[in-house]
Design goal:
The structure is a single chain. The chain contains twelve helices and 17 strands. By secondary structure, the protein is an alpha/beta fold. The protein folds into two domains: 51 residues, Membrane-bound Lytic Murein Transglycosylase D, Chain A, CATH 3.10.350.10; 261 residues, Alpha-Beta Barrel (TIM Barrel). The strands form three sheets. Strands 5-4-6-7-8-9-10-16-3-17 form a ten-stranded mixed beta sheet. The chain has a five-stranded antiparallel beta sheet with strand order 12-11-15-14-13. Strands 1-2 form a two-stranded antiparallel sheet. A hairpin with a 4-residue loop joins strand 13 and strand 14.
Length: 378
Amino acid sequence: MEIYVVRPGDTVDSIARQTGAPVDSLLYMNQIPYPYRLAVGQALLLSSGESFQTGQAISAAGYAYPFISPYVLEETLPYLTELPVFSYGFTTGGTLIPPALPDEPLIQAALSHNVNPILTLTPFGPDGQFNNNLITQVINNPAASQELIRQLEAILPEKGYRGVDIDFEFILAEDRYAFAAFVGDVRNAVNAIGYPVSVALAPKISDDQPGLLYQGKDYALLGEAADFALLMTYEWGYTYGPPMAVAPVDKVRQVVEYALTRIPAWKLSLGIPNYAYDWTLPFVRGQSKARTIGNVEAVQLAIQNNAAIQFDATAQTPYFHYEQGGQQHEVWFEDVRSLQAKFSLISEYSLRGAGYWQIMQLFRANWLLLADTFYLTG
């Protein structure tokens, strides 16, 4: 597969003639809707019609909520090896709280595609936000943590899950050892019934990195405690922050290089964002709030507003500006160029695989490029 960047005057037909790519393939792969308009600077994935699966074997995971569109799920599952279902919570006494909607359809769909459904465990409070007080109360209470583990052991075979992903965030610094011990206890119990345990890691670049997001996550301890780990290498550009790439490759590389000093490469998956942000300008900290959109939607937004797409060479990420209703906007998103740069990191460092947050919107070119770059294996 090749990547073509749209130039002024290009049309779908002219690109097809120039590259030899079939028109129907070009439209399908890049999700180009009628009347088939393009944006200058738009990156298109092209194929000659042949398919060669090359490169290293990796795992590919994509988080999904139970309300995912059945169509999007069916289109995406062929490119996954794991489907982490988001998410199960728990009480201070260690009682599991299932998702608000039934998770059985996702589990059965995953199993029907030979994809491993994974139970994602999160410490959400009543407000739906990560609650570090809940974490503290459970991991420091042997009775509560043992009850939670007992219920995990029971529900995995009952529901058909094939693993547990522990996604705890904003852990207090003083709980770093207790959290690692809890992850190890979950792993021992879950391994005993034949399933793996993974842990999600905030994107650190040093042992003593300050901040509530980082201080409770000890890479060395958690690398030992879990079977696998996901580097959450996204959210540099975020809802309440200034406009910038969500996952700039230069920043992502720093996290990977630090992680490899504490955790073996074969345990690590690279986090990849499947979303974009649209900021209004000027950015005012404490007041501005970016709108979350899909990557395919971002391109259509550029087309609708006659915006030329730029590409930041350092972040290896596309962006553009547009004006609507007298308001200036700045959009950063992912395309096949930025994804190729991230896939190159997986290859360069021989990482275990890729983990997507999240798969609720279909981004077909991403999955086709992933499958063309790597051999996907469980």
